[in-house]
Amino acid sequence: MTADNVSKFAGIYVAMYSAYDAKGIVDKERVKRLARYYASSGVKGLYVGGSSGEGMLQSAEERKQVLEAVLEEVRGELAVIVHVGASSTRESMDLCIHAQQVGADAVSSVPSVYYRLSEKAVENHWQHMIDSTNLPFIIYNIPQTTGFNLSFDLCKRLAQQEKVIGVKMSGESTFELEQFKEAGGDDFLVFNGPDEQFLAGRIMGADGGIGGTYGVMPELFCKLDAYFREGRFEEALQLQHTVNRFIKKLLGYPSLYGACKYILNLRGIETGEPRLPLLPVLPEHHESLVQLNEDIRAASLNYLS
Ligand SMILES: CC(=O)N[C@@H]([C@@H](O)[C@H](O)[C@H](O)CO)[C@@H](O)CC(=O)C(=O)O
């Protein structure tokens, strides 16, 4: 890991939703329009096929289609990190090789899920992905969904490899986030995962963030990051409070992703419904989401003026 890589990758990444047509089929044109929407928002890049991107609910072929559409639209404009986590190592390696072939900037993965795996097995799973391409690799630690929490020692061991450039820390402990930075050293990137505590993560050593709710308020997270970088901590805290009021509302719907997708649809960026078992919003939620969209827009205008 070099300082060059840090400056190449540090920053704000939208954990991008996938876009489907009315029948729930991946719609490459809609994916492109969504990627284009973010290209002018000030973010550093996109995290494709992660939790928000529903990669785990798609076939390998669909995941490849989404990545290809994103890269056809914003390759060279935005850094594109693709999540390649799958149950089998073989499928993840196939997705890694595809990512390299089509020009992704980095790959990232959760541990294999379903089987209760030892740390050795998870390490081996990730190592096969790391060895399968020349791409930088970003560990994805999200213990609340995978049941596996990255240890300091495993983080340190993996970070010794040139290709392992960082960790996306979606666990809620900012102490552990700080420890991953400690394990990897200054040139090892740590991305904050929980959007609700972006500022706390940054203060504890994160080099940026990857988040799903950034997708409906990318400008506000870019501004929050700018306040942090400029040492304007009181303003940063006020803005974090503002975005948290929005996030709290978003989390009150049948699914967070359904609510965010509905808001994008209100802006003319159609992404379809989340894929089952993730629930869509219901007609009775539409009115309050229209209001929430307006409130987010008003806050964005206020902060950007
Ligand atoms: C479980 C989950 O989706 N966590 C999100 C957060 O951005 C989350 O949506 C946000 O903090 C609201 O709770 C990210 O940490 C992970 C993520 O967005 C992704 O992989 O797509």
TrEMBL record:
Tree of life domain: Bacteria
Pfam families: DHDPS (PF00701)
Family as reported in the entry's similarity comment: Belongs to the DapA family.
Active site residues according to the UniProt entry: 140 (proton donor/acceptor), 168 (schiff-base intermediate with substrate)
GO molecular function: N-acetylneuraminate lyase activity
This protein's name: N-acetylneuraminate lyase
Organism of provenance: Paenibacillus dendrobii
GO CC annotation: cytosol
Positions in coiled-coil regions: none
Record PANTHER family: N-ACETYLNEURAMINATE LYASE
An individual GO BP term: N-acetylneuraminate catabolic process
Keywords: Lyase
Chain residues that bind pyruvate: 210
